[in-house]
């Protein structure tokens, strides 16, 4: 818990209540596997919290496919300056998220039921986050339309991060992104460090590329 205290600081009691809720209701409702309950801190909470190192102060964040709130709810706990929208299509998960937000007393979080690809009309953020949602080449088509010009996608990825980034290059080129790179955060706090794929959107608004229709 020494590292947890360092990472969460004054927000540690809130993080502890969230961990208890995950280990209880989260497991009971199938949002977290039973084997994960004993390793929630290092594998999930701290792993997600250190991603805050890459997010600017006061940013608006949309967490795509938020599930049990990883990483979006954790980021809202550790960074009260962020305005976080938890975007999740499944009712049972949004119900869990609403209960968690109320339990934790968080005022910087909005829970929204919906799919990313259907939300670009009325949702815009500085940063989009995602963890274990989809391969990067598919994720960028959902995330980039949700970003303001110059906004960033921060995708938490595992050991295949470099491979996924390479596979997504054609999609990134079609979107005309400014940069796409790998970042490691949480050095000395979590082992291995958390790997992020950081994709910076173009300065002009972009919509998902559409395939051309053949003329008859």
UniProtKB/TrEMBL annotation:
Keyword Transferase part of the UniProt annotation: yes
GO cellular component: a single term: cytosol
Keywords: Cytoplasm, Methyltransferase, rRNA processing, S-adenosyl-L-methionine, Transferase
Keyword Plastid annotated: no
CDD domains in the record: AdoMet_MTases (cd02440)
EC number: 2.1.1.-
Pfam family for this entry, one: GidB
Cellular localisation: Cytoplasm
Binding-site positions, S-adenosyl-L-methionine: 65, 70, 116-117, 131
Principal cellular location given in the protein's record: cytoplasm
Superkingdom field: Bacteria
Gene3D superfamilies: Vaccinia Virus protein VP39
Signal peptide stretch: none
One Gene Ontology MF term: rRNA (guanine-N7-)-methyltransferase activity
Protein family membership: Belongs to the methyltransferase superfamily. RNA methyltransferase RsmG family.
Function description: Specifically methylates the N7 position of a guanine in 16S rRNA.
Protein name: Ribosomal RNA small subunit methyltransferase G
Lineage of producing organism: Bacteria, Bacillati, Actinomycetota, Actinomycetes, Streptosporangiales
